[in-house]
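STRUCTURE:
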């Protein structure tokens, strides 16, 4: 005995037994008739239209939700990449400010020795801009680790507000910095050295936090672009992605 599944013209599925073709044909005919009558009744009552309307509405909703989720993920990754870029620029600006040669007197063409105030001003301006860009970008990411380091950076900067003020750098309510170049050009160079050079200085602390933020942003952005990751020991891990998946269902 052999049996098959078949689908009739009305879209109904019935069971066919090849050993009893007469019974099978009768079952198929009645099945078709019943299905057609049911379809006709749904068409006449408007049931089909309601089902189609509901179906396409749900499809549109799913498509919109999917597009929104994709857009959100893309925005999150872009924010992380922005933190990476700004962390790097902040570290680079602090590297210039920590260079001891910046605070050495130079001999000009007339034989006079003095600090290169233009070079110092340029370096401090670069730091202020990089710092503000980092603070701005770090506030846009959904990362507790990065935000924690940003808060620590802001607190350390605030703790050095007096020395910064003497250097022409003020802290706004939005935690961003503003530079008064006239004050900077008159400041004692030793104040700048205290702020930005040497282990344990404000510059060293900020550079360290920026480096940590870079690592966290890089890791998070990498994870978002991969379906699964491997730990340093080679173990397979999908925890981060499973978490994202569950969050998508909430």
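SEQUENCE:
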């Amino acid at each position: 005995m052999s049996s098959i599944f078949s689908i009739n013209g009305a879209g109904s599925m019935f069971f066919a037994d090849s050993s009893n073709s007469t019974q099978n044909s009768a079952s198929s005919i009645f099945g078709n008739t019943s299905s057609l009558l049911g379809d006709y009744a749904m068409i006449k009552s408007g049931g089909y239209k309601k089902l189609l309307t509901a179906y396409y509405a749900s499809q549109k909703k799913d498509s919109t939700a999917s597009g929104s989720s994709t857009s959100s993920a893309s925005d999150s990754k872009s924010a992380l990449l922005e933190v990476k870029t700004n962390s790097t620029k902040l570290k680079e600006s602090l590297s210039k400010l920590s260079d001891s040669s910046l605070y050495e007197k130079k001999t000009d063409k007339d034989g006079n020795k003095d600090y290169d105030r233009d070079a110092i001003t340029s370096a401090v301006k670069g730091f202020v801009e990089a710092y503000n860009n980092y603070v701005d970008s770090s506030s846009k990411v959904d990362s507790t680790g990065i935000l924690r380091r940003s808060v620590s950076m802001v607190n350390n900067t605030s703790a050095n507000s007096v020395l910064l003020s003497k250097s022409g750098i003020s802290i706004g309510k939005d935690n961003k910095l503003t530079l008064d170049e006239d004050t900077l050009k008159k400041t004692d160079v030793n104040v700048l050295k205290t702020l930005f050079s040497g282990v344990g200085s404000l510059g060293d602390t900020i550079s360290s936090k920026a480096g940590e933020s870079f690592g966290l942003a890089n890791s998070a952005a990498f994870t978002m672009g991969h379906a699964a990751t491997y730990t340093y020991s080679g173990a397979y891990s999908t925890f981060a992605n499973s978490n994202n998946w569950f969050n998508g269902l909430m």
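REMARK: DSSP finds nine helices and eight strands in the chain.
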